[in-house]
């Protein structure tokens, strides 16, 4: 992985809005910049409803942004049928639920070969399918060709889904909660597989997860989302051992062996993308503001009134910026 390389996949000023009942508008993604380097694994983390799945779908071209751009290899993504088909060969999705992703009437061979057939790739189909299954850890691959999904374990089904992505030789995999439906004993195997694919094939990956422990085990970098925005971003070991945004601190505080002294219990209502508060969008639930620390630093009014976006310091927090300035 080369952090200095040009981004393979990136987004600038990305916004995705949906109409909601009652004439309201949900700001599911609300001004996101993101970069994925070649060979990098980026974890996209946050609570349910924070916008991470919508962001992933937009990066895949499955949702069209209301504003902003997605770029692959430096070229803006185009939304014609032909352009999207070519793009989806290079950027593949791995779904959360392998049972839902696999047609129960298709054999493993047909499930993996489906991508090749959609893209009109007819050369060496059998060899390509066997190679993809083998790379996904299903060996010998021929043993699984005529097997049906119901005959496989959950971990084996997830490996078939991964093989279906690998068969097209993508440069990027976007995995949405790739181990959420699996037993704990199998989770480690699938995470180890994703790491091995990165090392062997140079694959880059975005892993969508609410599980910071998973991010710690697999990612190079992490982007923490809250209410449609990335609020903190950086190397995973730094963010999870020295979290600076109060929201990240709350998430990290409940991890086993957390570096923070005690758990942070967030107050207030869970985020609602149709009612984004003014000021810092986290301020109604912020323990730093509620505890008086923001007032001591002289930024409590800013927290309530002034919006704050991710800056060159990779954090979206008035208080954290003030404290980092005070210590430099």
TrEMBL record:
Keyword Transport: yes
Any one GO molecular-function label of the UniProt entry: ATP binding
The UniProt record lists the keyword Lipid biosynthesis: no
Database matches in InterPro entries: AAA+_ATPase, ABC_transp_ATP-bind, ABC_transporter-like_ATP-bd, ABC_transporter-like_CS, Oligopep_ABC_C, P-loop_NTPase
Keyword tags: ATP-binding, Nucleotide-binding, Transport
Pfam families in the record: ABC_tran, oligo_HPY
Domain of life: Bacteria
Single biological process term from Gene Ontology: transmembrane transport
SUPFAM superfamilies according to UniProt: P-loop containing nucleoside triphosphate hydrolases
Ranges of residues in domain ABC transporter: 9-252
Family as reported in the entry's similarity comment: Belongs to the ABC transporter superfamily.
Protein's name according to its UniProt entry: ABC transporter ATP-binding protein
Species of origin: Phytoactinopolyspora halotolerans
Top-level taxonomy: Bacteria, Bacillati, Actinomycetota, Actinomycetes, Jiangellales
């Amino acid at each position: 992985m080369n952090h200095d390389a040009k981004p393979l996949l990136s987004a600038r000023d990305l916004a995705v809005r949906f109409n909601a009942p009652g004439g309201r508008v949900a700001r599911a993604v609300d001004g996101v910049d993101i970069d994925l380097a070649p060979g990098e694994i980026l974890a996209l983390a946050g609570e349910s409803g924070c916008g991470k799945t919508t962001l992933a779908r937009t990066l895949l071209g499955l949702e069209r942004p209301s504003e902003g751009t997605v770029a692959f290899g430096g070229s803006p993504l185009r939304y014609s049928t032909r352009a999207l088909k070519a793009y989806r060969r290079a950027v593949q999705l791995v779904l959360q639920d392998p049972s839902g992703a696999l047609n129960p009437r298709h054999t493993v061979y047909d499930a993996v070969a489906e991508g090749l057939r959609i893209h009109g790739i007819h050369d060496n189909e059998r060899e390509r399918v066997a190679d993809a299954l083998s790379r996904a850890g299903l060996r010998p691959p021929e043993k699984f060709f005529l097997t049906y999904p119901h005959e496989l374990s959950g971990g084996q089904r997830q490996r078939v889904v991964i093989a279906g992505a690998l068969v097209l030789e993508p440069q990027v995999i976007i995995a949405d909660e790739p181990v959420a439906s699996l037993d704990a004993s199998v989770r480690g195997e699938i995470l180890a597989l994703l790491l091995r694919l990165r090392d062997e094939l140079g694959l880059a990956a975005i892993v969508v997860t609410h599980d910071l422990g998973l991010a710690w085990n697999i990612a190079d970098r992490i982007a923490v989302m809250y209410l449609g925005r990335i609020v903190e971003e950086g190397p995973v070991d730094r963010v999870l051992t020295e979290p600076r945004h109060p929201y990240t601190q709350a998430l990290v505080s409940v991890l086993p062996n957390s570096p923070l002294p005690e758990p942070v219990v967030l107050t207030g209502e869970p985020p609602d993308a149709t009612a984004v508060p003014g000021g810092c969008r986290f301020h109604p639930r912020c323990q730093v503001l509620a505890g008086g620390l923001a007032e001591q630093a002289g930024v409590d009014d800013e927290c309530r009134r002034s919006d704050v976006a991710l800056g060159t310091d990779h954090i979206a927090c008035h208080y954290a910026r003030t404290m980092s300035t005070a210590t430099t």
